[in-house]
Amino acid sequence: MKRTRHNRHQSTHHWSATLRRMLSPRTWLARHAQVALDSLGRLYRNPLATLMTAAVIGIALAMPACLYLLLNNMDRLSGAWDGQAGVSVFLKDTLPVAAAGKLASRVRGWPEVAEVTLVTPEQALEEFRQRSGFADVLDTLDENPLPAVLLVLPAPEQSDPQSAANLQNKLQALPETEQAQLDLQWVQRLTAMLALAQRGVLLISALLALAVLLVVGNTIRLEIQGRREEIVVTRLIGATDGFIRRPFLYSGTWYGVIGALLAWLLVETGFWLLASPVRQLADLYQSSFQLQTLPVLLLFGLLAGGILLGLLGSWIAVGRHLGTIEPG
Amino acid sequence: MLARDPGFRPATSIRATNDFMIRFDNVSKRYPGGFEALNNISLELEDGAMAFVTGHSGAGKSTLLKLIALIERTTRGQVHVNGQNVTSISRRRIPFIRRRIGFIFQDHNLLFDRTVFDNVALPLVIAGYRHQETGRRVRAALDKLGLLSKERMYPITLSGGEQQRVGIARAVVNKPLLLLADEPTGNLDPALSLEIMELFEQFNEVGVTVLIASHDTGLLDQLGYPVITLDHGRLAGAGQQSA
Question: Which domains can be identified in chain B, with CATH numbers?
């Protein structure tokens, strides 16, 4: 054939040009950007369906985020008392104040004690009056019902629960003592409960992450079915698996991004609604405590989680369903 | 990252080692269920040739084309395309073989949710052409097929003949070495059929090898190209049809 040689020459030239074209990173980036925008446009053209899927993802992401933030806040609240593993020694109310002062300096000399603060009945009453809001009631009392209290802080190396308990026993054994109470106990219990709750949140998060995977997976599966014909045609004209896979992976990623933004909105709105009652409650307890939401970190975390789950969910769907669609 | 994407590899080593674009050596194709579509077919088609495959419905015309485009794989025998043995080529490399082949279907296989332009651009998008280059080539192909004024239209608004020409534009836009057409005139009237065939002749004239499956023997007699006749999956005859 007279055209054969020419044809082949053209073909070789064509391939080196093609190779150069394809290896250009600019082309590669442009292709990905275009597919990403294409996928976004596809979602935009079906706003209701997109929003519903994204809302499910958003709610599923918002729930663990809310629980985590609540726990985080409670942790902060309990953390304020951490380290104050003190023993409150309530002295017998028959004990004169001078004797209480002597006892305080005696206990201060113990090697396992770092610091002793004496709170006289008068001081205790004044503090109670200021803090509790019962000032009017206290004024009606004839005599001070409060005992003197020694606040005993153990030395730092003696502050583990066992040593603290030993110190408590030693203080309880003093003849002047009415009751020695380890202040740490309720903090420890609260901390233990918080740890349990954190484990629970982790478990719920794992379940909700699974739910997100299933939602994204199913949505992408439906999208693949809807575009079955397109997949067959593109395969017929030389599309690689990567080319066919790409728009679906981007769709899944976009679902994750939109879901994460919705989740962020939900959490911020929820905490905004809670902020005012929490402040009122804190005021009642004379506390300056405020709810914190860590907006930037939260947004970052939600986006990372959403993208990861969206990508993973679509990857699973694509892996399961694309391979079965072949021309024939 | 680039090297790992199969989209960036060259189309394997398509390089002619002989003068045949297509060579079948004792090829059989048995479908799952036992139907034997092709039985011991051996044939050769020269580089730059134009030929027809004919035969009754179910004779194996479509299967023959599908084996070349690797839509179906052979049960026995060897298939060479452009000098390369593609019989047991891996699934991952198939796309790169297909990019050198333009396939035209009886039912067009156009995508109805995108414009004529986007349909024709698809092979170039798949091959990773730049935007400007894609536009240039698509418009050249559309111009060649007289569809330039329809580029913004959707295929559903076009007539059957126009849809088929869009299908042809899509098949030739990537400058394939080989054009395969499965009953390209199946739904068209004789005048339109002849028009389509003349288009194929024009592509053949610039060096593209063309193989057309058709049961329209009247049309084949008119054109006078080599004809491969299949009968129940066997080769019934091959020869020059007289004009």
Answer: 1-100+177-243 (3.40.50.300), 110-175 (no CATH)
Q: Is A212 found in the same domain as A303?
A: yes
Residue A1 lies in a domain: no
From residue A209, give the alpha-carbon distance in Å to each of A56, A214, B99: 11, 9, 41
Residue A5: pLDDT band (50, 70, 90) is very low
CB-closest option in A3, A6, A233 to B109: A233
CA angle A177, A182, A185 (to 5 degrees): 155
More confident residue, B241 or A54: A54
Asked, for residue A177, whether it belongs to a domain, the answer is yes
Nearest to A240 among B7, B66, B103 (CB): B7
Contact check, Cβ <8 Å, A28/B2? yes
Element (H, E) at A118: strand A113-119
Mean predicted confidence (pLDDT) in A74-89: 68
Domain that holds residue A240: 30-80+189-324
Ranking A6-10, B69-73, B164-168, B213-217 by mean pLDDT, the lowest is: A6-10
User: Are residue A316 and residue A193 in the same domain, yes or no?
Assistant: yes
Domain tally, chain A: 2
∠ Cα A62 A64 A65 (to 5°) = 60
A258 and A220 housed in the same domain: yes
In a domain, A15, yes or no: no
- Averaged pLDDT score across all residues of chain B: 85
B67's CB contacts (< 8 A; 6+ apart) are B24, B27, B29, B38, B73, B74, B79
Checking if the pLDDT of A133 tops 70, the result is: no
Contacts of B20 in chain A (CB under 8 A): none
